[in-house]
Amino acid sequence: MKKLIVLFALFSSFAFAQNFNYKSYEVLLKKYVSDKGNVNYDELNRNKAELNVVVAQFEKNSVKKNWSKNEKMAYYINTYNVYTLKSIIDNYPVKSIKDIKDVWDKKIIQMGAEKVSLSYVENKILRKMGDPRIHFAINCASFSCPNLSNNAYEPENLNK
User: Fold this and answer.
1) Peptide bond into 132 cis (omega under 30)
2) CA distances (Å), 71 to each of 76, 110, 159, in order?
């Protein structure tokens, strides 16, 4: 019985083990985003290599069919937020994200063999997941948007 419990615990940890490691993204958020959700774009721009490392991690990994809904949702929310930061830094300095031509429609997000836009991730993926709370999690880098969390969204903490 003890072996069965140990095997179950081991399997459970693998089954819900993250299929994506958000540690680098979490470090970036803690370093450049305040507790109130304000991004220090000047510093992030000076250290854009750190953002590029995180972006590369997202580009190398994509959602798998066997991921749970929470794993997929966390991945797509974080993807949206990472690429919003990238859009700002790629056009820095900019007064407003709204000053970036076609920012939400540019195909800048590498997903497998194709590139998609921020709008695609929001409207064709996240909204179709049927959870209206995504609007509080994705950040469009505008004062009219919800604050950017300085924590990465993780599958096990989405309900927090």
Assistant:
1) no
2) 9, 18, 12
Point out the least confidently predicted range of 22-26, 72-76, 134-138: 134-138
C-alpha to C-alpha distances, 131 to 79, 113, 126, 159, nearest whole angstrom? 17, 27, 8, 11
Q: Which two tokens stand for residue 160?
A: 């927090």
> Rounded to two decimals, what is the model's pTM?
0.86
* Bridge partners for 109 per DSSP: 116
Q: What percent of the chain has pLDDT over 70?
A: 88
**What residues are paired with 111 via a beta bridge?**
114
First-to-last C-alpha distance (Å) of the chain? 34
**What sign does the dihedral 89-110-57-142 (CA atoms) show?**
positive
The token pair at 24 is 């680098």
Q: What is the CA radius of gyration of the chain?
A: 17
Query: What distance lies between CA 31 and its chain's CA centroid?
Result: 16
Give the tens place of pLDDT for each residue, 12-26: 434 444 589 999 999
